TrEMBL record:
A Gene Ontology molecular function term of the record: unfolded protein binding
Function: Together with the chaperonin GroEL, plays an essential role in assisting protein folding. The GroEL-GroES system forms a nano-cage that allows encapsulation of the non-native substrate proteins and provides a physical environment optimized to promote and accelerate protein folding. GroES binds to the apical surface of the GroEL ring, thereby capping the opening of the GroEL channel.
PROSITE patterns attached to this UniProt entry: CHAPERONINS_CPN10
UniProt keyword Transferase, yes or no: no
Segments traversing the membrane: none
Family: Belongs to the GroES chaperonin family.
Organism placement in taxonomy: Bacteria, Pseudomonadati, Bacteroidota, Flavobacteriia, Flavobacteriales
Keywords carried by this UniProt record: Chaperone, Cytoplasm
Top-rank taxon: Bacteria
Name of encoding gene: groES
Gene Ontology CC: cytoplasm
Localization (cell): Cytoplasm
Alphabetical list of InterPro entries matching this protein: Chaperonin_GroES, Chaperonin_GroES_sf, Chaprnonin_Cpn10_CS, GroES-like_sf
Protein name: Co-chaperonin GroES
Length: 91
């Protein structure tokens, strides 16, 4: 992706998946009622801590807690910066 951002230590930069716009039955969900996505793709990682190397890598699709991470906008896109410990699973 060529992002000019490098997370430090055990932090990772996640690009959240797009919020669902329709339900399974086809009902359109308005913007103010959409659930915050809890899934995303890792686009940058730090170097890990001295005795704790990172277990995720760039390109992994991950699940994280609803209120995990710090939202930030970089080069016009929305991202979440979080610690690896906020990630619950790789899918």
């Amino acid at each position: 992706m060529g992002l000019n951002i490098k997370p430090l230590a055990d932090r990772v930069l996640v690009e959240p998946a797009a919020a669902e716009t329709t339900t399974a039955s086809g009902i359109i969900i308005p913007d103010n009622a959409k659930e915050k996505p809890q899934k995303g793709t890792i686009v940058a990682i730090g170097t890990g801590k001295k005795d704790e190397p990172l277990t995720v890598k760039v390109g992994d699709t991950v699940l994280y807690g609803k209120y995990s991470g710090t939202e930030l906008k970089f080069e016009g896109k929305d991202y979440l910066m979080m610690r690896e410990s906020d990630i619950m699973a790789i899918i």
